[in-house]
Amino acid sequence: MPLRRRPLALLPALALLGAVTACTSAAVGDPVGTPAGQVVAPESNAPEAPRERIKLTTDNSRQSSGTVVAGVEDAVYNYAPAVMMDGGRVRTWWCSQMGSAQPNGDDILYSEGPSADGPFSTARAVLSGSGSSFDAMHTCDPSLVKIGDTYYMYYTGASRDNHANGSSIGVATSKDGTNWARANGGRAIVGPSNDVSRENTYGAGQQSAIYLDGWVYLLFTDTTGYAAATNGAGQYVVRSKDPLFGTGVEALGPQGFKPVDSTNQPRTRSLVEAFSADWMWIEAASTFAIAHSTDAGTTITFWNKEFTRHPFEPVVIPGAWKEGPGLVRSPEGHAPVNAGDPCNRVGLDVLRATSSDGSGAPTNINHFGVDALGLNGCVTADEARALNGFAMPSPERTADVVVGGKLVRFERGSVAAQYAVGVLARRPKAVDSLKVAVRVPAGVPAVRSPRDQVGLLVNNKLMVMNSLAAAELNSSEVTIVTQEQWDRFERLTT
């Protein structure tokens, strides 16, 4: 969080000692898409050795025609967005300052739209300074994950402008993403470690959260951290299964994650020499992708799950920038799955400030993106989770749909295609390790509600279909039921 106040305009605090240029630290056929009678072999795309510094290619470069989100009233700067694809919307929260949102400090604004290019709704402030505690004046640098039905927003707070390493990380919760309540008793969950006193006195903040396998992974800046560069640039990681980081905290060090007594233990390992970074998890390739600003634009640095190697060479999203990027992510902080090629292609999209206002503060948030190709993904059972909802050929000349880590096997591929979110012509290798949990024969009964909802009755349980044509394609006799009867049916799960 570059801390600033009006009327005095300050340059971003983390740019005081120059730009960061380093990229990394050391270290519907029946079956689906297949002619009748032809058995399709699994993909043989698994690398013989663990992925290490594979060079990806990029295509489908994209950029918005101009600013996509901005504050209103007297909000002169806009930067550090958090971007979530949620319920068919692109939702974004970012750092700005609106005079109507008291106290007079940084505020977190919110807007939403149909795509990363907008149009976005009118901005409004959703979290401002508390007037007391660590975040009395400033709230900034939002990052969000959704766990169950609860949103967690991790944000940077400071009690004053002249904060002298006073920036710390807090967390707030919400059921809708717009009405927030401070958690942890309004106290910070991460503060500066104070390992080293440097000229850059920002402190701890600029966090980015991912929810993965029951853990919240928190990436953040700490200019007082031991492993930072001389200008304070560095990115550290702590994780916990407690979203408030009150218990079971582990910190990433040279030998991996180790339990720590508190979140401000010495920072012994930095993943990338950068400020204001964002990250996400790419399920299909078991890799973390860290987005950070370099001279070339936004560089994406990749780490494997254990943080022992770089699976891929860095990728650059070119274009103008002034402050750290916000990746377009799922509610858990994962990469959106590519509908056409989920195992080999990933979209890398960011919103980022592109220019400065009259005071030098970053503003004008634009959308930039590229697709990266060559992941060689979907090799393990864990990576096959990226295929959730996809249909593909089965070894029995039928069709499989991946659902919750298991397979639903349809006798007719045309019906599988109606149920699926996408159809693959070839079967990825990892799918062979998944169990067939449900079989859907042709001709099973179907029911239809007054709202035109259609479902197949499999083992006397309701499989809700995505199309009215599904019952006809399955040669299923349809019975009209009341809405009450529809609601009472036990749902089929895997």
Describe this structure as you would to a colleague:
The chain is mainly beta and 494 residues long. Helices cover 4% and strands 37% of the residues. It contains three helices and 30 strands. An eight-stranded mixed sheet has the order 1-21-20-19-2-3-4-5, with no helix packed on it. A five-stranded antiparallel sheet has the order 10-11-12-13-14, with no helix packed on it. Strand 13 and strand 14 form a beta hairpin. The N terminus is likely disordered.
Helix/strand layout:
Layout: E1 57-63, E2 79-86, E3 89-96, E4 107-113, E5 124-127, E6 138-147, E7 150-158, E8 168-174, E9 181-182, E10 204-212, E11 215-222, E12 236-240, E13 250-253, E14 256-259, E15 278-282, E16 287-294, E17 297-304, E18 315-318, E19 326-329, E20 345-356, E21 362-373, E22 390-393, E23 399-403, E24 406-410, H1 413-419, E25 422-423, E26 436-440, E27 446-448, E28 454-458, E29 461-464, H2 469-473, E30 478-480, H3 483-488
N-end to C-end Cα span: 44 Å
Please tally the helical runs, counting DSSP H or I stretches of 4 or more residues: 3
Number of DSSP-assigned strands: 30
Look at the structure and give the mean pLDDT. Answer: 90
Principal-axes geometry comes out as globular
Please give the largest β-sheet: 8 strands, mixed
Percentage of β-strand residues? 35-45%
Question: What structural class do the secondary elements suggest?
Answer: mainly beta
Helix content: under 10%
| Order of strands in the sheet with most strands | 1-21-20-19-2-3-4-5
| Low-confidence blocks of residues | 2-46
Please tell me how large the radius of gyration is: 24 Å
